[in-house]
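User: quick one, fold this
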Amino acid sequence: MLHTFAQHLTKYLNEQEIAQLIASLDAKRYQGLLLNIDKFSEENLIREFPSLIKHPIITNGYIYDPELIAPGKSYLFNAGAYYLQDLSAMLVASLITPSQDEIIADLCAAPGGKSIQTALNNPQSVLIANDISGLRAKTLAQNVERFGLSNVVVTNEDALDLIKKSTYKFDKIILDAPCSGSGMFRKSFEMLNDWSLNKVTKFQEIQKELLTLAYSKLKPGGELIYSTCSFSYEENEAVILSLLANSDAEIIPISAHESFYMSKDVPGAIHLFPHLFEGDGHFICKLRKSGQKIVQPLTKPKINTFGQYKLDLELTNHGEHYFGLKFNIKMPFNIVRFGVFLGTIEKGNISYNHHLAHYLPVSAAIALNAEEKEKYLQGETFVNLEFPDGYQVVKYQELNLGFVKVSRGNVKNHYPKGLRIR
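Assistant:
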C-alpha cells in the first residue's frame, strides 16, 4: 500500500521529495499548544512547562514533546489557559485575517481548535462552529465552554445543509474539508491500510461540491480558507483549480516560508510536509471573492440579568436552559450551544452552568488557597467561613475554576464530575 501511495504522489512531487516525505512518517511527532493570553500569561506558562518551545510562525503557539510533559493532565487545560492541537491545524487559523463585525463559519469544526483560535483572534465577530456529528458537536461545545467564549454558536448540521439553510452570506468561511486522511499517517499508521485511490476520488467529489457551495455563500470581498489533511493532488490543487475555472475566485497568496512546500500549480497555496514543518500533513489555500467588501456592524445587546449576574449578552432560552450570545443575531440552524450556556431555571430555581464561570471575569470570583484548590478539583466539599453565602465563582491564581454554593461557611462543590481529579 505504501508503494501505491508513493507512486500516487508523482502527480506533483519528484522522487527525492517523495522519499523525504515517506521517511518523515516514521519521525517523532511533536504537539502544539495554543496559549489563551486572555486568561494566562506567557510567563506563567513557561514557569509551568519550561521545556515549551515558542513557535516561530504561529502567534501564541508553542511546540512540546509529549514524552516530556502532559499539559492535558493539568488543571490549567480544563480552566481554558491553553488548547492542545496539531501544529499544522493550528497554522490554518493563524492565517485568517483578524477583523470585526463579521459572521464567520467553520463548516467542519470539531473538535474545535480552529474555531477557538479564530474566536479568540476575532472577539468582535461571531463564529458559527459546525459539525455533522452530534457527538463531535458536543465535544466542540465543551471545548468552547472551557474558554468561556461568548461569540461562538455551535451547530450540528451537514455542512451542505447549513450553507443551504443560511439566510445570509458569510464574511469568512473555514472549510477544513473531509478527506482521505493521508496527512494523518504519522499520527495513525493504521490509516494507511484504509487509504485507496477510490477513497481519494470519492472525497474529491465531496470537496468540490462543498467548496463550490460554500463559495456561493461568501460575501463580495469575503475570504475562504480551504484545507485538508491529505497529501493528494486530487483533493488539493485539483479542487482549487476546479473552483478557479468556474468562478470569480482569486487566490490570496500565503507568504513563503522555509518550512512550507509552495504549490506549483496553485501559486500562493502551500503544503505542510512533516519533514519541513513539524505537524501532520496539510494543504492550505486562501481565496477571496471579487467585489467590494461592505461592513455591516453587528448589533450588540443591552445589559441583561441572569440570576445575580448582569451580562452584556443577548439572552435566549430553550425550555429551562438559558444561553447568552455577545451579539443580537438570529440563526436558522440546529443549534447545540448559542453562545454561553448560562444555566437553567426550573420552578423558579436557578442553577448556573460551568460555562458561565469561565465567561465571567476573574474580578467576579473569590480566591482559593492551594489546599482548597486541590479539594475543589477533586470534587470535595470544604469549609471557609469568610466566603459569602450563595452561588460563587472560585478562582486560583487568576484563573476561574467553576462554581460553588456556600451556606454558613460550608462550600458545596459544583465542579463538573467529568472533570474531577481522581
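User: anything notable?
Assistant: The chain has a mean pLDDT of 96.
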